[in-house]
Amino acid sequence: MKENLKESRYRHSLGVQDMASHLAEIYGADVEKAEFAGRYHDIAKCFDQEKMDEAVRKYNLPDEYIGNCALAHSKVAAEILKIEFGVDDEEVLNAVRSHTTARPGMALLEEIVYVADAIEDNRNYPQLKALQKQAETDLDGVCLIIMDFTIGKIYEKGRVPDKTSLEAREWIKERIGKK
């Protein structure tokens, strides 16, 4: 993995592994699965556009991922783990697959990895410590905050968020009773 990632991305992956492990312990999820999914969630993150598009085609992923490394990397990572490394645990694969966009009906492990990706210790933004603390008691609430922030940033850039992300946000809102 270290060969495929920049040093900062490798440190990030280890940070996600640690945060996912921490959250899994708190919420009763499988710690080993959380660590594994956290560590390998970004295995394809540093692919250039050509390599990413080649992987999208190789793994027969939808054409909507062609030309979009930001969305494709999580889907490609899950396929690499499944096909190249023989990972057959759908819970782990779904956690890797949905760590960028989230998805409606996420399992606990998916939500843990999604949140851990945003709040691991190597991140650097003013609300980090507060979100880390809140995540220990209100995983859904932090998940919604992250979704709102991410979707807002996409709109600020004049782009349209992925449909799955918008559906995931509505799902988490309903789950926690916020409208």
Q: Could you provide a short overview of the structure?
A:
65% of the residues lie in helices and 0% in strands.
Strand content: under 5%
Q: Nearest-angstrom radius of gyration?
A: 15 Å
| Uncertain runs | none
H/E element string?
A: HHHHHHHHH
Q: Choose one word for the global shape.
A: globular
Label the CATH architecture.
Orthogonal Bundle
Q: What is the β-strand count? A: 0
The mean pLDDT is 94
**Which structural class do the helices and strands define?**
mainly alpha
The main pleated sheet reads as:
none
Number of domains: 1
Query: What do we call the CATH topology?
Result: Hypothetical protein af1432
Helix content: 55-70%
Continuous helix count: 9
What is the CATH level 1 assignment?
Mainly Alpha
Distance between the termini: 41 Å
- The H-level CATH homologous superfamily, spelled out, is Hypothetical protein af1432
